[in-house]
Amino acid sequence: MCLLFDITNKTVVITGASQGIGKEIAFFLAKKGANIALIARNSGKLENIVNELRSAGHESIAISQDLKKVSELNKTMKKIYDFFGSIDILINNAGVNIAKPAERITENDWDNVIDINLKSAFFCCQAAGDYLKKSNNGKIITMSSQMAKVGYYDRVAYCSSKGGVTQLTKSLAVEWAREKINVNAIAPTFIKTPMTESMFEDKEFKRNVLNKIPLGRLATIQDLLGTVLFLSSHSSDMITGQTIYVDGGWTIW
């Protein structure tokens, strides 16, 4: 009999794990008993996190990887599998936004956003796929955004990438259901982090955002963690192809 919300000894791969949401998810799931594999570009930050996790008694490994170099992802996932003996949960957390009016978006801007937010997510799934199939209860969680469903100013590339994540989630869920892999996404509203603090110094922007959230506040990383655990565990075994909106009600409108 499986225990709801139990992820003890499950191996979790988290991209974009050197700071912010990815880092907090890593510590949260480690405390729940999971083995943690961290992927990001900043090797110094990754090593600090791994040292902290190991000091607390949590099994972990860090791999410095530019996710745009998709040809290297197979090697990265194999290294993780060889280290832990399994890959059970993949969390595609890496993301980027270039906030510009549509007429000022360059080809390089567009490619950078799509490559990180959508292309890398797919190729991480592909690289981890064979190992997730061996798990016999694999879970894929991609961090999306409310912008997958609604539009917003200065975010045409970002909204497009997250809309793509919705369809990636649905399509992969259909294809890999026979492999007992659940594929879902989490779509938060604006989250208060050190990286977004400067954005909310613009009082008019902050007022506009809060006016669209019925619950009347920005999200925090803590608001995401319950959904992450839910989608990582047996509690969500009958849920696949879904995007769960953790948006305070923004997408009600």
Q: What's the CATH class, please?
A: Alpha Beta
Number of helices: 7
Strand order of the largest sheet: 3-2-1-4-5-6-7
Overall number of structural domains: 1
Q: Tell me the CATH superfamily.
A: NAD(P)-binding Rossmann-like Domain
Furnish the topology, listing elements before pairings:
Elements: E1 11-15, H1 20-31, E2 35-40, H2 43-55, E3 60-64, H3 73-84, E4 89-92, H4 107-135, E5 138-143, H5 156-176, E6 181-188, H6 203-211, H7 222-232, E7 243-246
Parallel strand pairs: 1-2, 1-4, 2-3, 4-5, 5-6, 6-7
Helix pairs in contact: 1-7, 3-4, 4-5
What features would you describe in this structure?
It is a single chain. The protein is an alpha/beta fold and 253 residues long. It has a single domain (11-189, 220-246), classed as NAD(P)-binding Rossmann-like Domain (Rossmann fold), CATH 3.40.50. It has seven helices and seven strands, in the order E-H-E-H-E-H-E-H-E-H-E-H-H-E. It has helices at 20-31, 43-55, 73-84, 107-135, 156-176, 203-211, 222-232, and strands at residues 11-15, 35-40, 60-64, 89-92, 138-143, 181-188, 243-246. Strands 3-2-1-4-5-6-7 form a seven-stranded parallel β-sheet, with helices on both faces. Strand 5 (138-143), helix 5 and strand 6 (181-188) form a beta-alpha-beta unit. Helix 3 (73-84) runs parallel beside helix 4 (107-135) and helix 4 runs parallel beside helix 5 (156-176). The longest helix is centred in the middle third of the chain and has 29 residues, at 107-135. It starts with 10 loop residues before the first strand and ends in a 7-residue tail after the last strand.
